[in-house]
Amino acid sequence: MLSKYKHENLVSLLHFCIESEERILVYEFASRGSLDCYLSDPSLTWIQRLKICIGVARALNYLHDPSDTHQRILHRDIKSANILLDEEWNAKVSDFGLSKIGPANQPQTYLISNAVGTPGYCDPLYWETGILSKESDVYSFGVVLFEIMCGRFCCEYRDGSLLGILVPLWKKCYEEKRLDDIIFHGIKEHMKPDSLNTFSTIAYQCLKRARKKRPTMGDIVQKLEIALEQQEIFDNGEKFERMRANADLAVSPLSYKTESMKSVDMVENMKMPDSENEVNIGLPSPDSVDFISLQIIRNDDLEELKELGSGTLGTVYYGKWRGTDVAIKRIKKSFFAGQSSEQERLTNEFWREADILSKLHHPNVIAFYGVVLDGPGGTVASVTEFVADGSLRRALLRKDRHLDQRKTLLIAMDAAFAMEYLHSKNIVHFDVTCESLLVNMKDRSRPICKVGGFGLSKIKQNTLVSGEVRGGALPWMAPELLNGSDNKVSEKVDVFSFGIVLWEILTGCIVSNTMRPEIPKDCDDEWRRLMEQCWAPDPMVRPSFTEVTSWLRLMSSTKP
Is the dihedral of CA 78, 81, 84, 87 positive or negative? Predict the structure, then answer.
C-alpha cells in the first residue's frame, strides 16, 4: 500500500526484502519517535503543535481524496502513537496495518467491517454499527487535536486497565466555555486567543456524533492553517519587538536584500552600534525575513566543550545544546567591520542565509538549529548539527582505510541526493567542494555524507541566477563563472563542481590549479563518463542532479 502513496507527511517505505523465509520492510526513520511521547512536554511549543497537526491533516486529506489514484485509503487507527516525528518535528502518519481501501470517485465511501481501532480514538458510530467512512478518521483526528491542546492522553489507565475516556469531558468543557480547565498549562500562556478559538472549534466539530456535521480533512487543513497564521502574526510581532529591544536599536532596520555571502554555514542578526567601536549588524524589516522559522538560542543554554578550529571569520567549537551534540561557530566582530555600504551588504547576506537554511530539511543537508544573539562581547554564533568526522577533504587527506570503493560511492550518492533536493528548492550552492561535504564515519559499514558550507548560496528566482560570486574555490568553479561572458548562470555550475569532487573521491587526492584533472587509466568506465559529463564546458551538456542520482544508483546496483 505505502509503495503507491507518496506524501511528505506519510512515513516512507524505502525498501523491502523477500529472501528465503525472510520478509522485511524498511521504513523511513523518524528520529524523534511518536507524538504521544511529547503531549505533556512544555518544550513542544504551540506553534510546533499546530504545524504537526497541519502535517497530519494534509496526509489524511491526501489519503481520503487522492488526485492521482482511483482508490481512497481509510486509516482506521489515527492516534498520537501512530504519528511519528522526524528530526525537524515534521509529522509522519504511520501504521497502516488496519487500513481499508475504497473507491475515490464518489463523494462518500462506506465499508462494512468489524470495528477495530484503539479505545478513545475510535468513532462511536463505527464502533456501534460497523460502518466505516472517512468521517471515522476525522473523529479520531479530532481526539488527537484535543490531546495536543490538553497535553494528555484521551484515556486514563491504572495498572494497565482502562479507567475512563476523557473525550466526553473535553467536549463538555468546550460547550460550557471552560477550555481553561483542560488546556495544557505548559503552553497556555503562549496561545493567542484567536488561534486557540479557531483550533478548538474545528477540533470540537470533528467529534460531532452525526457524520454529516463533521468537517472534511480539506476543511480541517484550512482551519488549522488559519490558526497557525493567527499565532504566527502574534508571535512574529512579539518576537520582532523583543529582538528590537534586545538589540537596543535606535534607527530603522535595514531593508532586506538578496545577495551572496562568503562566510559561515548559518546565521542571524545583532546590535546596531552604540559607539564607533561597536559592530553594525542591523535588523531587517519583519516582512523581509520569516522570523518564526529562525530559532533564537540563548547563549546560557550552550556548553562549549572543545575548540575544533579557528579562521578569519571566527572559531568553531564542539558543544552541547539541550543535550544534543552541536557545532557552535562564533563569528568575529571584525567580519562585519568596514565601510557602511560593506556592513549593510554583509548584514543583509547574513540574514538571507539564515532565512534560507532554516527552511532546509533533508537527511543529507547539514541541520541548522539557530543563532545566538547574546554571545560574549556582543558576538553572534550559529548553531548547527555536529558531524564528528569533519569534512570529506579531511577524510581523504588522512587516507581513511575504511573508505573503500563501495563506501565512496555511497558518499557520492548522499551528496548527489542533497544537491538534487537543493535544486528542487531553487537553491544554487556555488561552493560544492570536499570542504563543504561533511562525513560521519560512526557506522563504518555505511558512512553518511551531508552538504554544508552555504555561504555563497543563492535562491534562483527564474531559470538563471546571478553568477556574481565573491570568493569560491577556483578549481571547482565552472568556466562560465570565470570567463565573465555571462552574468547569469544556471544550477549546472554545481554539477561542474560535483564532477571535480567525484575525481577527488576516486583518487583520494585534492585537486589544485587545474580545471579538469587527469583521469587515472584504471578508472571505472561509468565513473569516467559521469565525471566527464559533469565537468563538460557547455552547461547544457551537463546532467541534472536527478540524472546524476539515477546514474549513481545504477552504478551502485552493479557493485558487490
Answer: positive
Single pTM value for the model = 0.53
State the CATH class of domain 254-385.
alpha beta
What SS3 class is residue 224?
helix
Which CATH number applies to 2-234: 3.20.20.70, 1.10.510.10, 3.40.50.720, 1.10.10.10? Answer: 1.10.510.10
Type and span of the H or E element at 155: strand 155-158
Q: Is the dihedral of CA 271, 272, 274, 277 positive or negative?
A: positive
The separation between CA 3 and the C-alpha centre of its own chain, rounded to angstroms, equals 22
8 A C-beta contact, residue 510 and residue 434: yes
pLDDT range class, residue 295, cuts 50, 70, 90: confident
Whose cell is 520492510? That residue is 25
378-411: per-residue pLDDT in tens? 777 888 888 888 888 888 887 765 567 788 889 9
- What are 315's three cell numbers? 572559531
Cα end-to-end span (Å), the chain: 30
- Per domain, the residue ranges of the chain are 2-234, 254-385, 392-557
Rounded-to-integer distance, Cα 110 and Cα 103, Å:
10
Phi and psi angles of residue 459, each rounded to the nearest 5 degrees, phi first: -90, 130
- Catalytic sites, residue numbers: 431
Q: Does domain 392-557 have CATH number 1.10.510.10?
A: yes
- Strand 161-165 and strand 155-158: the pairing is antiparallel
Cα 208 from Cα 136, distance rounded (Å):
11
CB count within 10 Å of CB 58 equals 22
2-234 matches 254-385 in fold: no
Count of H helices and E strands in the chain?
A: 14, 22
